[in-house]
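Schema walkthrough. Field components (list of strings):
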Amino acid sequence: MNAKKTPEKRPVLQWVMAALGGTVTLAAIGVMVWEGLQPSSPPILMARIVKVEVTAAGHIATIQVKNDGDDTAAAVNIEAALGDQTAKATLDYVPGHGEAEAYLRFEADPRTAAVRVEGWSAP
Amino acid sequence: MSLAAFIDPRLERNYLRDLGRAFAGALVFSIPLLMTMEMWEAGVAMAPWRLLLFVGSGLPLLYGLAYYAGFSNRRGLFNDLLDTAVALAVGFITASILLILFGVVDWNASPREALGMVAIQAVPGALGALLARKQLSGGDKGDTDEDQASYMGELFLMSAGALFFALNIAPTEEMILIAYKTTAVHALGLIALSVLLLHLIVFKAGFAGQEEADRPLEAFLYFTLPGYAIALGISLFVLFVFGRTDGHSIDGVLHTMIVLGFPSAIGAAAARLLV
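Field assembly_structure (string):
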């Protein structure tokens, strides 16, 4: 260890922080490079009802939208039809391989409602 | 070998103080960005190669700032590299903690989302950490290399300042909106004002650290005009990284560049005073 000893002593804290910063930065760059090299697929969006709550304001359905594609979808429009009632909501973003939640309000129990993604825009 | 032999409590305490100052700098400089919605969106939606370009071009800039400012008293190539890495750690930690506290990064976020949102904020945070020493050290005169900065060094500092200001504004929707609202006359006015203020702030306003210009015309040609060119270049780069040039005609891009060039020019001028 004598050979390694620098003439000027550095605080251990500096080593620890520098190692942390270097590692995290290189890891972030690594992930980005890896991702950049992957072939990207357009958003593949799937919407489904995951929960229904009965409130004073009607039946509130929690809609989960999953994106199985690589690209992020923005301004995702969701529509659900139940009888003659249609409910709509917009999600700002559904990230690639991620998910986002929206809420739709119905007068009746919406468990049988058909939920679908109408469209989206590129972010 | 016992651990105690490596640890000198006084040294650690002093460094802890440097580190505290670095965190303060990161906070001061990155809170506006951490609270900007477009920055969160950029972290999620930005193409990986753009994010890479951003982080990749940030690294040499951070190293340059470590060289000219830095937040510890030591100097030297290796120490500047260490300072750069530490600044990045400070940037990452600051961004992670605050984005979690703001509820922007939560358990539902995919690792890629969280990483993107934090990484894009870590660079300006690190920038602030490196500037902290000069800004927050309350006048204990350190041997920064800034005083002996060469001409290239001066230009570098201007680009760092321009980048810092541009970064704070470029991600916002308003940038595009202002560009849409400005006509050619507005743009010309903005150019004139940018150049004028750049010159006045660096040479005339009487700030501490200000240049003395014995020959104003020479100063204008050597510093002000190159400074404005740098400000415009940095603006264009930042706009490109944030996708603000996508789908615009050359004319539209020029307008946005001139609009963002205004704060960038102020940043370039301020850099000579701040760093």
